[in-house]
Amino acid sequence: MSKTSEQAALTFKIGGDLEINRLGYGGMQLTGFGVWGDAPNRETAKAVLQKAVESGVNFIDTADSYGPHTNEKLIADALHPYPKGLVIATKGGFDRTGPNQWVTNGDPDHIRQAIDGSLQRLKLERIDLWQLHRFDPDVPVEETLGPVVEAVQAGKIRHVGLSEVGIKEIERAEKVVPIVSVQNLYNLGNRKWESVLDYTARRGMAFIPWYPLASGPNKLAAKIREIAEKHEATTAQIALAWLLKRSPNMLLIPGTSSPDHLQENLAADQIVLSDEDFAALSE
């Protein structure tokens, strides 16, 4: 692969106009236990965010529910005023009642407050990518997305994405507002959303796997170890390299609170798996 095509393969345009590096950063781990409260060591957390951007990351994923609210404030404290080209994606649609407690809330008033709150905490005039964290079974998504449409029209949101959805949910939401991204659980060991990934690739939407570092079931362990040794890489790097090769619309947001682990993750885009390696891990 030539250097030019290799570079092209490592970027993706969200919504057709926001070109980002496919290896980004997810902020969720920069919170307390159970994604509750602020980062235990705030200065280290800020340093990790700053190091990520210095290292070429220009896509950061967060949510109003991380903390709640503390993660968005931390990102602003660490990085504002933001460098040109940095895309910060956030999400709304959960209430938090305690550590590891997540309550879906698709009430339009809640969504409206979530959008305005994120803008304020992130010190943004416009959110480049706002994602609905979950469909609320008790509220029609058409109602949930009403304030999102209003925010797009008002210039508060540039693009809209969804999380943990199937194809039917994507198509239902698209009748209300254009959808440019889907963030679902997906990794080497959990490929439940395979059909959604392929659907988004055909549609030119970004697919953002959460929990991307899971390296799969024990039956894969020996293969991953063998391939990692061949590339002088860690198993986590191989898991990320597999995702990058799996589909060109895949945007990765591995999170960490460790500067060293951050550098390890970001080096994954230097690993080019052979078709043989990829096939061995894809069984």
Automatic annotation (TrEMBL):
It comes from the Bacteria. The keyword DNA-binding does not apply. One of its GO terms (molecular function) is oxidoreductase activity. The keyword Iron does not apply. SUPFAM superfamilies: NAD(P)-linked oxidoreductase. Pfam families: Aldo_ket_red. GO terms for cellular component: cytoplasm. Keywords: Oxidoreductase. PANTHER family: AFLATOXIN B1 ALDEHYDE REDUCTASE, ALDO-KETO REDUCTASE YAKC [NADP(+)]. This is Aldo/keto reductase.
